[in-house]
Amino acid sequence: MARFLIKRLLSVSLTLFAVSVVSFLMFFALPKDPVTGMCPKNCNAERLERVRQELGLNDPKVEQYAAYMKGIFVGRDLGSAQGGKCEAPCLGYSYVNSEAVTDTLGRVLPVTLSIVIPAAILWLLLGVGLGMLSALRRGTLVDRLAIGFSLTGASMQLYFVGALLLLIFTYQLKIVPVPHYTSILDNPFDWASGLVLAWIALAFLFSAIYARLARAQMLETLSEDFVRTARAKGLAKRTVYGRHALRAAITPLVTIAGLDVGAALGGTVITETTFGIQGLGRTAVYAVRGGDLPMIMATVLIAAVFVVIANLVVDLLYAAIDPRVRLS
Amino acid sequence: MSLSPEVLEPVPVADAAPVEKGVVGRSPGQLAWTRLRRDRTAMISGCTLLLLMLVALAAPLIEVLYGVGPHDEFKELLTRRGAIPLGYAGGVSADHWFGIEPGTGRDIFIRMVYGLRTSIFIALASALVTAGIGVTAGILAGYLGGWVDTVISWITDFALALPFLIFALAIMRPVEMRFYGPRDEVPVWFRVTVLIAIFAAFGWTSTARLVRGQVISLREREFIEAARASGAGLGHILFRQLLPNLWAPILVSFSLAVPAYVTGEAALSFLGIGIVDPTPDFGAMIFRSIAYLQTDPAYVFFPGITIFALVLAFNLFGDALRDALDPKSSR
Amino acid sequence: MSLLAVEGLTKHFPARGGVVRAVDGLDFTVRAGETLGLVGESGCGKTTTGRMLVRLLEPTGGRIVFEDRDITHLGGRAMRPLRQELQIIFQDPYASLNPRHTVGRIVAMPLTVNGIRPPGGVKKRVQELLELVGLNPEHYNRYPHEFSGGQRQRVGIARALALRPKLIVADEPVSALDVSIQAQVINLLRQLQRDLGLAFVFIAHDLAVVRHFCQRVAVMYLGRIVEIGERDEIYERPRHPYTRALLSAIPNVAKLGESEGRIRLSGDVPTPMNPPSGCRFRTRCWKAQDVCATEEPPLTGGVACHFPEGAS
Predict the structure, then answer these.
(1) Whether B9 contacts chain C with CB within 8 A
(2) Do A32 and B308 touch (CB under 8 A)?
(3) Structural domain boundaries of chain B?
(4) CATH class of the domain whose range is A103-327
(5) Is B18 on the interface with C (CB under 8 A)?
(6) B260 falls in which pLDDT band (50, 70, 90)?
(7) Which end of chain A has the smaller Cβ count within 10 Å, N or C?
(8) Any chain B CB within 8 A of the CB of A24?
(9) Could you give phi then psi for residue B183, rounded to 5 degrees?
C-alpha cells in the first residue's frame, strides 16, 4: 500500500507540475504584452515599464517560472508596488483587486466549497436512490418516470434550470431569498437559505446522470450469478439487494463521483454566475474579463489541484476496496 | 476418431448456408440501420434533429420569408422606461412570433433561427475535428503500443486534470491578446475558430481512449495477422482492416459529443467568453435574460427550451444509435 | 532439396521475473509438396513456431531458410515477394475473418495488398478460389456472420490460396470446428495439397487428424522436438517415451475397456520459464536415470532420448 501511495503521489506531482508549466507558458507567454491587461487603465508608459520590471517580465521565461514556483513554496518579495513581502504560498499580486491573490482565494474558496459539498451529498443520495429504485421496479411507471427525469436532467442547461428556480421560488413565490453567501459560522440558517437554490440546481443536473448510471449498474449486478445464488440460497430480498448488490453496484459510481466533485469545485463558474454568488468560478470570470493574469493562473492551478486530488482520493478508495488495483 | 480415406475422397459441397436466398449479403451496418429504423424514439428524435438542422441551414431564406432580420431593432415596441416589451409574453405577436428582446428590441424568433445556426455549426465542427484527432491518436496508440501509447496515454491523463471550463475561460483572452490588441474588435470567425480549437483540444482524449481500447482488443485478432502475413503495410492494417471495425464506437461517441459541445458552447457564451453580442447565440441570450427575469420572464423561455430540445434530441438519438449498433447493450 | 529448412529456431518472450522459452532450438525441414505435422500439448510452442515461420513473430535465434534464402530477419519490403509463397490458415474461423468485410473482399485482400491484377480481374479470381474451396461463388458479397464455422474456415483457406503459395502453415485449422465438419475441411485440404502440390506445416494436438493428413510428424515438448519421422514410423513404432504416452491416449474402439497400454503421465508440464535441466521430459518420464538430469539428449536418428524404445 505504501508503495502504491508513493507511486500515485509521484504521478500526481508530475501532473501538477505539467499543468503549472503549461498554464504559465500560456498565460504569460502567449499575449503580446501581459502588462497592458494587468495594469489599471490609468497606466502610462513609464508605469507600465516599472510594472514590467517588477514582474520580471524582461527576464527569461525559465527564470520567471522559477520565481513563480519559489513564491508558491517559500514565498518571495514582490516589490513595493505589489504589496511587498508575499508569504508562501505566494501566487502573486492582483492589480485589479489590489491585493495578494491568496487573500482573494481565501475569501472565495469557502463560498465554492459551501456550494459544491452539500450539493454533491444531495445529488449522490438522490441519484443513487432513484437509480436503485428504478432498477428494482424495472418496467413500471416508477421506472419510466425515473428515466424521464434523468433524460431531462442530462439535457438541461444549468443556467436555464437556475433561471427557472429563481423565477419560481424567489421572484414569483417569494419563499427563498435572493441567493447570497453568509458564512455558516455566522448564521447557519442564512447560509443554507442563501445557497439552497444553487444546491437544487446542481443536484438536479448531476443526480440525473447518476440515476442513469446507478440504474444500469444495478441491472447488470442483479443479473450476475452471485446475486442469483444469494437469492437461491434463500437470503431475504432485502439482504441480497441491500448488502450484496448495492455494494457491487456502487463501487464504479465512486470513481465518477470523485471526478465530478473535483470538476465541480473547479467549475462552479456557471452556478455562481447564474445565482450571482461570488466564489472561485466567478472570480475566475472577472479575472479573465479584467485580464488579471496572476489571478487567472491561480484559479486554473487551484481548480487543477481539486481535480487531481479528487482523482487521488478515488484511487486510494479503490485500492482500499479492491486489492487487485494495487498490483497493477 | 478414425477417418478412412475412401469415405473422405469427394469434396463435399459446403454445408448448408443458414441464410435467406439472395446474392448480396447484409452488412453489419445495414443491420444496424434496420434496427434504427424500427426504433420509434430514434425516428422521432432523428426527425427533430433534421428539422432543426434544416432551419439552421435555411436561416437566410427564413429571414426573407419572415421579413425581419436578426439585427433589426423595434424600439417602438418597448416601454419607454426599462425598455420592456409591450404586450403579453414578452411581446409575442403575429409579426414577432416569440416576442422581442427587452433592451434592444430585436426579434427573438429570427435571432434563435440564427442562434441555432451558430450552435449547430460549432458543435458539429468541433465534434468532427475531435473525432478526427481522437480516432487517429487512438488507433496509433492502440496498434503501435510502446512509447507512442505511453505518450498519448499520458497526454490523455493530463488533459483530464485540466479543469475544462476555467481553462477554456482563461485561455480565450490570452489567445485574443496574442493576435489582436486590447482595444481591437475581435472578428466572429476568430472566436469561432478558437472555440472549436478549445473543444477539440479537450475533447479528443475521450475518443482516443475509447478507440485505443477497441484497437487493443482487435489488434491480436487473427484477421489482422492474416493481413500482415500477406504483406499488408501499416496503412492498410490501420485504415482498411481496423477502421471499419471502429465505426460503431466512433459514431456513438460522435453523436454524444455533439450535444456536449452545444452545451459547452452555450455555457462559454453564457459566461461572455464564447460568442458575444450582437452575433445571435443561445448562451448569450440566456445570459442577457437573467437580468430581465423579474421584468420580462418570458425572455428566458424561448432560448432555454430550444436548447433543451436540441440537446435532448441529440442525446436520445445518440442512445438509440448505440442500441442499434450494439444490440447487446440495453438502456 | 528442401523447401523450408529450420535450424536452431528459438523464441524467448520477456516476462515478469524472467524469460519464457516458448521455442528453444528447433531443427526440421519440409520438402516441396510434403506435409509435416507438428504435434504436442498446448503450450509446447507449436503455435509460436508457426507464427515465426510466416514471420508474424520475430525469432530470437536460429535460422529459417526458404528456397535457399535466409528469411529469418528479412525486412518488410524484402519479405513481400516471399510472403506470397508462404501463407497461414488460422485456428479460429470467427476471429480470422474481418467482420466488416465481404467474403469477396477478404479473399481478395492478399491480391489487393500486393497490387496483383490477375488476368480476368480480381473478382473472377476470387470466385474461382471460392469454387475451389467448395463455396458458392455467388456468395461473393456476403458477410462472414452469414456463414457457418466450416464455411468460414473455407473462406480462410481460399484467402491463403489467393497468392498461390508453395507452403501453408495450418495452425490447428479444424480444432475449433464440429467433429462432423472437421472431416470435410481436412478432406478439402488433402485434395488441395494433391492438386496444387502444396507443402503444409500442419499444427495440431489431435493425433488422429495428423495421422490422416501428414506424411511426416514432429512431436514437440516444452519448446523442443523430441521425435521426428515418417508417419508410420511414429505411429507404429514410437521411440520417445513422450510420443508413446501421447499415442496411448488416443481412444481405440478395438481395445475398449482394457486399461493396460494406456500410459498415464504424472505431474504437470513444467513451466517454460524454468525448464528442467538435461532432458526436459525427465520429470514425468518413467525411464529417467541420473544421466537424463545432467545431459540433454541430442536429436539423433529422429529421436531425442537417452533410452529410446526398441534400442535396448
Answers:
(1) yes
(2) no
(3) 30-325
(4) mainly alpha
(5) yes
(6) confident
(7) C
(8) no
(9) -100, -5
Q: Residue C84 CB: number of other CB atoms within 10 A?
A: 18
* Domain annotation for chain C: domains and CATH numbers: 2-243 (3.40.50.300)
Q: Are A281 and B264 in contact (CB under 8 A)?
A: no
B96: Cβ–Cβ under 8 A, 6 or more apart, which residues? B68, B74, B77, B107, B108, B109
Measure CB to CB from residue A157 to each of B166, B175, B266 and give the nearest one.
B266
Please tell me the distance from the alpha carbon of residue C312 to that of residue C303, in angstroms, as a whole number.
14
Nearest CA to CA, how far is B245 from chain A (Å)? 25
Which residues of A are less than 8 Å from B164 in CB distance? 263, 267
| Whether the Cβ atoms of residue A10 and residue A299 lie closer than 8 Å to each other | no
Is residue A42 exposed (0-12), middle (13-18) or buried (19+ Cβ within 10 Å)? exposed
Q: Do chains A and B touch (3 or more CB pairs under 8 A)?
A: yes
pLDDT of B234 > 60? The answer is yes
Q: By the 8 A CB rule, do A199 and A126 touch?
A: no
B6 touches chain C (CB under 8 A): no
Strands (E), C122-253: 167-171, 199-204, 216-221, 224-230
Question: Is the pLDDT score of A84 beyond 70?
Answer: no
Distance CA C160, CA C281 (A): 36
Give domain B30-325's CATH number out of 1.10.3720.10, 3.40.50.300, 3.40.50.150, 3.40.50.12780.
1.10.3720.10
Of B91, B89, B39, B104, the closest CA to residue B280 belongs to B104
User: Do B246 and B207 form a contact (C-beta atoms < 8 A)?
Assistant: no
Is the minimum CB–CB distance between A255 and chain B shorter than 8 Å? no
Query: Which pLDDT value is given to residue C220?
Result: 92
**Are B8 and C141 within 8 A, CB to CB?**
no
pTM for the model stands at 0.79
**Do β-strands A93-94 and C167-171 pair in parallel, antiparallel, or remain unpaired?**
unpaired
What amino acid occupies position A233? K
Rg (C-alpha) for chain B, rounded Å, is 26
What torsion, rounded to 10 degrees, do the Cα atoms C99, C104, C106, C109 define?
-150
The ipTM value here is: 0.85
Q: DSSP class of residue B273?
A: S
